[in-house]
């Protein structure tokens, strides 16, 4: 296997595998089900497939950036976004701190937007891969905010 393929595989394992593991250890429980939620809250089964697809796109963008632009601000922002993403579920579901999770998801939205802006000229496909991520994390921030406001 060449180094480029190994990079893509490594990023897929890190992001998809890490995201799935964090999700498995932070599943919605009775506490979450007891929270008041807005009418636009999707059913629980929607989140797994959406996040799996997004994680694959995040991994590809990260691998592309790592291969071509490793020492740029885009790569540093990509890592920051991943850290914020992986922190959200343990805060919200594990520690049951929706308000702290809201702060994290707002930071995530900002970092995703910054990644898109910093990648746009140097690697447009990577920036485009983050557009659905921006849409979903923005929706997640609104949903998280609504849950905080309702509870």
TrEMBL record:
Q: Tell me where in or outside the cell this protein is found.
A: Membrane
Q: How does it sit in the membrane?
A: Multi-pass membrane protein
**UniProt keyword Transmembrane helix, yes or no:** yes
Q: Which InterPro entries does the entry link to?
A: TspO/MBR-related_sf, TspO_MBR
- Which of UniProt's keywords are assigned here? Membrane, Transmembrane, Transmembrane helix
The residue range of the signal peptide is none
BP GO terms, sorted? tetrapyrrole metabolic process
Q: Which Pfam families match?
A: TspO_MBR (PF03073)
Keyword Ribonucleoprotein belongs to the record:
no
Its main localization is: membrane
Transmembrane regions: 7-25, 45-63, 75-93, 99-117, 129-150
Superkingdom of the organism of origin: Bacteria
Q: Name one GO cellular component term.
A: membrane
Family under the similarity heading: Belongs to the TspO/BZRP family.
The name on file for this protein is: TspO/MBR related protein
This chain's source organism reads Rhizobium subbaraonis
């Amino acid at each position: 296997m060449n180094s480029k393929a190994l990079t893509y595989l490594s990023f897929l394992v890190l992001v998809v595998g890490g995201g799935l593991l964090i999700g498995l250890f932070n599943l919605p429980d009775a506490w979450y089900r007891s929270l008041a939620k807005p009418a636009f809250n999707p059913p629980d089964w929607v989140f797994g497939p959406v996040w799996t697809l997004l994680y694959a796109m995040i991994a590809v963008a990260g691998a592309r950036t790592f291969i071509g632009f490793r020492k740029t601000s885009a790569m540093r922002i990509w890592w920051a976004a991943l850290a914020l993403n992986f922190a959200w579920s343990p805060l919200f579901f594990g520690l049951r701190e929706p308000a702290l999770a809201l702060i994290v998801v707002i930071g995530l939205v900002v970092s995703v937007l910054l990644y898109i802006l910093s990648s746009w000229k140097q690697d447009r496909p990577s920036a485009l891969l983050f557009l659905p991520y921006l849409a979903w994390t923005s929706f997640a921030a609104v949903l998280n905010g609504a849950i905080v406001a309702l509870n």
